[in-house]
Amino acid sequence: MLSNYIFTTLCLICDGISLKHLPICQACLDELPKNLHPCQQCGVKIETKTLKICGKCQHTPPQYDTTIAPYYYEHAIKHLIIELKYYKKLHNVNLLGKLLAQHITKQQLPEYLIPIPIHRKRLSKRGFNQSMELCRVLSKELDIPILPNAILKKKITKAQASLTAKQRKQNLKNSFAINQDIKAQHIAIIDDVMTTGTTMNEMARLLKKAGIKQIEAWVCARTHKKFN
Ligand SMILES: [Zn+2]
Ligand SMILES: [Zn+2]
């Protein structure tokens, strides 16, 4: 019937009929690469199922306290993120943000969401910051306010993906700055993908220095390659 047809949305992956509450069909949802046994602190895949925290975090814990990373950066999730970032398919953010929101435990939510900022020159070139767009969806889903300009990206840095772990740290040195007084104890930093966690760690380091006690990293996807 036409009236039904009007309210039907399509699955962003296969163009089939989507679920009512998400722009994805059940079959594609079931196929998403789930990060089933992540390190609670950094989100990386843990091979030893009895461990809650990976060896690396036990040895040198990052500045952020916990990570929510429901998917691996593979298959359809990788495709959705690449389409969003490089082909400006902004509607993908709606699905990615809602999927991430579904994995957040509603008890003890953070007081604010903070996006990973991009440099203003890069922002004007790309037209949007995917991390900020994810914040908007999460903010609406979970009713948490955003601090959009709490941290500024001061310098244009090279793409982290092309660098070694050591170069990543060097690349990010002094590249972010706190831009306002943040009156909160508990915040979540939002990003699309977490690779080594170097960017997240640098953001968390600044926020801890500014007095924020509890910092969560919320990302749609985690890579699980070893970089060190
Ligand atoms: Zn589908
Ligand atoms: Zn870990």
Descriptive overview:
The structure is a single chain. Helix content is 35%, strand content 14%. It has 228 residues and is an alpha/beta fold. It has two domains: 1-31, no CATH class; 36-222, Rossmann fold, CATH 3.40.50. Strands 1, 2, 3, 6 and 7 form a five-stranded parallel sheet that branches. Strands 4-5 form a two-stranded antiparallel sheet. Helix 5 (92-102) crosses helix 7. The longest helix is centred in the middle third of the chain and has 13 residues, at 75-87. It is globular and about 50 Å long. The termini are far apart. The model has no long low-confidence stretch (mean pLDDT 91). Bound molecules: zinc ion (2 copies). One zinc ion binds next to helix 3.
What order do the helices and strands come in, and which of them pair?
Layout lengths: L1 H5 L19 H6 L23 H5 L6 E3 L2 E2 L2 H13 L4 H11 L9 E4 L4 H7 L3 H13 L8 E3 L11 H8 L3 E3 L7 E9 L3 H12 L4 E9 L6
The structure holds zinc ion (2 copies).
Low-pLDDT parts are none
The top-level CATH class of the largest domain is Alpha Beta
Could you describe the largest sheet, including whether it forms a barrel? 5 strands, parallel
SS summary, helix count: 9
The CATH architecture designation of the largest domain is: 3-Layer(aba) Sandwich
Summary of the model, kept short:
The chain has 228 residues and is an alpha/beta fold.
Defining key terms:
228 residues; alpha/beta; Rossmann fold; 2 domains; 5-stranded parallel sheet; two-stranded antiparallel sheet; 9 helices; 7 strands; 35% helix; 14% strand; globular; binds zinc ion
